[in-house]
Write a structure and sequence with these properties.
This protein is of the alpha+beta class. The chain folds into three domains: 6-74, Integrase, N-terminal zinc-binding domain (Arc Repressor Mutant, subunit A, Orthogonal Bundle); 85-99 and 109-131 and 207-248, Alpha-Beta Plaits, CATH 3.30.70.980; 133-203, Alpha-Beta Plaits (2-Layer Sandwich). It has helices spanning 6-18, 21-39, 47-58, 63-74, 106-119, 149-158, 180-189, 212-226, 242-248; strands at residues 83-91, 95-103, 123-125, 134-143, 163-167, 170-175, 196-203, 207-208, 231-236, 238-239.
């Protein structure tokens, strides 16, 4: 699969280094609550909840926090009612952006997301304007030191994985969301340790960012969106060489 989400990998690495622990846990708790509310609190029966809990565990979120989030989602504990909203827009240079939010006030969140685009040279679009450029995929990360490529390919592809990509220190297994649990289970059966499990909106066609000023103008929008408390994920269809990424953040 060409053009898989390099930016998702960059964003994951950057987030791991930069994200404040408390803010990260708050976002994960919201995701767990919504997953439990929509599909129930049984991890074995709710694949989405299982993925969210695995993501929380891989981020070292305390077990008590995870359990409280599930109970808020199922109604066993009181809490704010969050709804999931996706916004679409364009960053400079025609880069398509999808923003997934969890909010208890959609009017406030919509206004603030729009202002972020406007202040940074982008524009908020109507629903459907950019979503057609993305497809949801399951992404499983495995440390390279844990398994050889041949062993991983044998286990993952036989279980239904679509692709295995090299992401520096990790392998990234790409699957359809429907096959995520089956592939994760097959990797566990093959004694292949999983570093993280996530889902992402992946774009096949990427906009190349060829110099640092261009990259900075796009990253300014992405970073501002990711700093908003209600924003859970930001996906964008651009490709940026490592050396330009480093220059843009220098």
């Amino acid at each position: 699969m060409s053009g898989h989400s390099k930016w998702h990998s960059i964003k994951h690495q950057k987030g791991a280094a930069d994200a404040a622990r408390g803010k990260l846990f708050a976002r994960l708790a919201r995701q767990i609550e919504v997953a439990a509310r929509s599909g129930g609190g049984d991890i074995d029966a709710n694949a989405n909840l299982r993925a969210m809990v695995q993501k929380a565990r891989s981020s070292s979120m305390p077990k008590d926090n995870i359990e409280r989030a599930i109970k808020r989602g199922t109604g066993e504990l009181e809490g704010a009612h969050y709804e999931s909203i996706t916004y679409e827009g364009y960053a400079p240079h025609g880069v398509a952006v999808l923003i997934e939010c969890l909010t208890d006030n959609r009017n406030r969140t919509g206004s603030e997301v729009k202002n972020i685009f406007t202040r940074n040279g982008g524009s908020l679009s109507e629903p459907g304007a950019v979503a057609w450029q993305f497809e949801r995929k399951g992404l499983i990360a495995i440390e390279k030191t844990a398994v050889t490529e041949d062993t991983l390919m044998l286990a993952a592809l036989e279980a239904g994985a679509e692709d295995i990509a090299d992401h520096g220190n990790t392998w990234q297994v790409v699957v359809t969301p429907a096959d995520l649990v089956a592939v994760e289970t097959a990797l566990a059966a093959a004694a292949i340790p999983v570093a993280s499990v996530d889902t992402a909106m992946v774009a096949e066609q990427l906009v190349p960012l060829v110099d640092a000023p261009t990259a900075k103008s796009v990253l300014r929008v992405i970073d501002s969106l990711e700093e908003h408390d209600d924003v859970q994920h930001v996906f964008a269809n651009f490709d940026i060489p490592d050396e330009i990424l480093e220059s843009a953040y220098a």
